[in-house]
Amino acid sequence: METGINSFFNNSFVRIIIIVLIAILLHYLSSKIIGYLIRFFVQREKSQTLADAKKREDTLIGLGSTLTKIIIWAIAIFAILDVFKFNIASVMAGAGVVGIVVGLGAQTTIRDYLAGIFILLENQYRVGDVITLSGGSVGVGTSGVVEEITLRITKIRDLDGALNVVRNGEANVITNLTFEYSSVVIDVGVDYASDIDNVEKIMNKVGKDMLKDQELAPSIKEPISFLRVSDFTDNSVVVKVIGKVKPAKQWEIAGEYRRRLLKAFNEAGIEIAFPQVVVHQKK
């Protein structure tokens, strides 16, 4: 009986099937295991919100799962080679030589991998962040929502729905628009005849009233308020307002503020300036 069992498990075909089945099982379990370990061991920083912490965890889980699956299948391949009596030591030595040759001709790729490591270690951006990459070979800049980060590339979905794939080593400047919090900065041009003190009062009131809205209030950290008279143009006095909101909520809150401000200005008889030409007739 034991001889039959031993001969069964010593069969090369059976051993390969067992190795593949174990690899498949570990492949599907790895994501859950990595997810549990990262959520257990990665501590949230005091300044981080729950949303920021989750973004970082999701990013690390995605990368960790990918690397773990690569290792699992690499081990499975070596185990299968061992079944066929391949000299793994010579294969590894040959792979080392090939690695040196490839490394000399793939410095750009190595730079991308190193940049990817620092992006994750320094928590520069996470999956779900809205970022702009610029400088280097990126050119004028690529903006959008981060959908995926690997050690080599970052996938960014822009507002038009296009998916941009950027190598991690390409950008010199990374602008994260949704790290910890976002700012609402709006310039409003009002007519020169407007009472600037009244304009300030109305702007502040609109910002504070938004805190009373149960749907908007959770997204607002600091209400939008009058900052300063920013500029004098040919046809308007430019007033700047600023506020602080939760990450990625600046566009929604700014749009609602503009809508309410327009209504408040109309009720108060304050005109938002528009281009105009004054003609003086020669007598």
Uncertain segments are: none
Which descriptor suits the 3D outline? elongated
**Overall tally of structural domains:** 3
Order of helices and strands: HHHHHEEEEEEHEEH
* Head-to-tail CA distance between termini: 122 Å
Radius of gyration: 29 Å
CATH domain fold name of the largest domain: Helix Hairpins
* Largest sheet, strands/sense/barrel: 5 strands, antiparallel
The CATH architecture of the largest domain = Orthogonal Bundle
Strand content: 15-25%
Count, helices? 7
Mean pLDDT: 81
CATH class of the largest domain: Mainly Alpha
Strand elements, count:
8
| Helix vs. strand class | alpha+beta
Could you give the order of strands across the largest sheet? 4-3-2-1-5
Question: Could you estimate the helical fraction of the residues in percent?
Answer: 40-55%
Report what the structure shows.
- With 283 residues, this protein is of the alpha+beta class.
- The protein folds into 3 domains: 2-105, Helix Hairpins (Orthogonal Bundle), CATH 1.10.287.1260; 124-176, SH3 type barrels (Roll), CATH 2.30.30.60; 182-268, Alpha-Beta Plaits, CATH 3.30.70.100.
- The chain is built from 7 helices and 8 strands.
- It has helices spanning 2-10, 12-41, 50-83, 88-104, 107-121, 196-210, 250-268, and strands at 130-134, 142-149, 153-157, 163-167, 173-176, 182-190, 220-232, 237-245.
- Strands 4-3-2-1-5 form a 5-stranded antiparallel β-sheet. A 3-stranded antiparallel β-sheet has the order 6-8-7, with helices on one face.
- Strand 7 (220-232) and strand 8 form a beta hairpin.
- Helix 6 (196-210) crosses helix 7.
- The mean pLDDT is 81.
